[in-house]
C-alpha cells in the first residue's frame, strides 16, 4: 500500500471511530460551538425534492433532539418560501450566502444538484459551519480532493448524506468480516434497479420545451460554475440526465450501494474500475447512460459488482462472498451462511436507511463527539469509485486510482499488481 493510501485509511479509521482517539479529537475540536445541552440551530440550502424530506425530518426531531430551524435558501425564492412554511419559520432567502452569514446557524443542510455541492460545502466551511451535504459529496474528483483538504484544515464536521450508513447493518457486517466470520473476502455484488415508464429515467411527464423561467429563479446562481447556457427547463427539472450537473445512475444511485460495501468490507479507494452501459432505451437528448453497471477492484484483493438498469426492476441479492461463507443482506439486517447453508452468524438491524437517524448522528457528533457514520473519507472514496466508472464508460478505458496524486488515470499507465496489498 502506498504511503498516501496508508495515511488516508488510518485517518478514516480514526474518523469512523475504529480508533477511539478519533472520536475524542472530533469532540474537542467542535465542543466550543455546540455544548452538550445547547439547542442546535439549522439552516437549509436548497428547498427542492430531497430538502423537503430533510425539513420534515428536522420538524419531527425538533423537540426530541432540541433543534431549531432558522433559515431556508433556494435560488428559486418561491421554493425557499415553501420550505420555510414546512418548518413554520419566516426566514426565506434566495442567496445561500445569507444562510452562511447567519451567526445563529450551527449546521447547514445542502440539498442542491450535485454540481453545486463542492462550492457550497467549501463556502460553508469557510463560514465555520458544520454540514450535512447530500450525496454524492461532490460532482467531480478534483472537487472531492479540495473538500477533503479543507475539511482536514478546518476540522469542521461534515456528514455525507448516504443515510444507509446510519443503518447499523453495514458497520456490524464490517465487524463480523474483520472477525473472520466468512473467511477471506473475495467478491461482493449489489444492485440498484428501477423500471421507468415511457418518459424514461428522471423525466418530468409533459414538461414543455417553452416552460418559462420563473421570475424569482436565479438561473446563474443555479448554474454556478457549470457551462453558461440559456434557461432550459429540462436542465433545471431533469438535471440528473446531464453530465454538466450529475453523474446519473452512478453518482445518484450507485453511490448509495458502493458505500454500503465499502463500510462492510473496510474499503476506501478502488485499484481499478470499469463502467459499462449505454443510452439504450431513452435516446432523448440525455448525455448519461440509462442502463449502467460497474465493477471495482480493491487493493485488499476483492471485486465489487454493481448491477444497474432503469428498464427492469428484477434485482439480485446483495451479498459478500468469502472463502468460508457468504454474508447476505436482508430486509431485517444480515445473515452469514457457510457453503452448506448453515448459519454462521446473523444481525437484526436496530434502525434503517433513515435520514432522521443520519441527522441525529450528526447532532450527537456535535454535542458528544459520536463518530460520524458517513465522514469525508467515505464521501471522497465513494466519489472516486463512481467518477472512475463514469470516466471508464465515457472514454472506453479501465481506470485506476493514482494514490500518490489523488486522481484517476487510465489503468494501463500504472504498473499495478494483481495480488492483494499486504495491509490493505
Ligand atoms: N439521500 C437520498 O436518498 C437522496 C434522494 C434524493 C435526492 N438526493 C440528493 O439531494 C440533492 C438534491 O436533489 P433533489 O432531488 O432535491 O433536486 P431538486 O432539483 O428537486 O432540488 C434542488 C434544489 O436546489 C436549489 N438550488 C440549486 N442551486 C441553488 C443555489 N445556488 N442556491 C440555493 N438553492 C439552489 C434548486 O432551486 C432546487 O430547488 C442531490 O444531491 C440528490 O442527489 C438524495
Short descriptors:
424 residues; alpha/beta; Rossmann fold; Dihydrodipicolinate Reductase, domain 2; 2 domains; six-stranded parallel β-sheet; 35% helix; 21% strand; disordered N terminus; binds nicotinamide-adenine-dinucleotide
Shape: globular
Write the H/E string, N to C: HHEHEHEHEHEHEHEHHHEEEEEEEHHEE
Instruction: Give me the secondary-structure category.
Output: alpha/beta
- Percent of sequence in beta strands: 15-25%
Which percent range fits the helix content?
A: 25-40%
How are the SSEs placed, and which strands pair?
Elements: H1 3-15, H2 20-30, E1 40-45, H3 49-61, E2 67-73, H4 77-87, E3 92-93, H5 97-101, E4 107-110, H6 117-126, E5 130-134, H7 141-154, E6 158-161, H8 169-178, E7 185-193, H9 219-223, H10 233-237, H11 249-265, E8 272-278, E9 291-298, E10 302-309, E11 319-322, E12 326-330, E13 333-337, E14 343-348, H12 355-368, H13 376-395, E15 399-402, E16 407-410
Parallel strand pairs: 1-2, 1-4, 2-3, 4-5, 5-6, 7-10
Antiparallel strand pairs: 7-11, 8-9, 8-15, 9-10, 11-12, 12-13, 13-14, 15-16
Helix pairs in contact: 1-2, 3-12, 6-7, 7-13, 8-11, 11-13
Textual characterization of the structure:
By secondary structure, the chain is α/β, with parallel strands linked by helices. It folds into two domains: 3-166 and 358-367 and 370-375, NAD(P)-binding Rossmann-like Domain (Rossmann fold); 169-199 and 245-351 and 381-413, Dihydrodipicolinate Reductase, domain 2. The protein is 35% helix and 21% strand. It is built from 13 helices and 16 strands. It has helices at residues 3-15, 20-30, 49-61, 77-87, 97-101, 117-126, 141-154, 169-178, 219-223, 233-237, 249-265, 355-368, 376-395; strands at 40-45, 67-73, 92-93, 107-110, 130-134, 158-161, 185-193, 272-278, 291-298, 302-309, 319-322, 326-330, 333-337, 343-348, 399-402, 407-410. It has a ten-stranded mixed sheet. The model is unreliable at 1-29 (pLDDT under 50). Nicotinamide-adenine-dinucleotide binds next to helix 3 and helix 9.
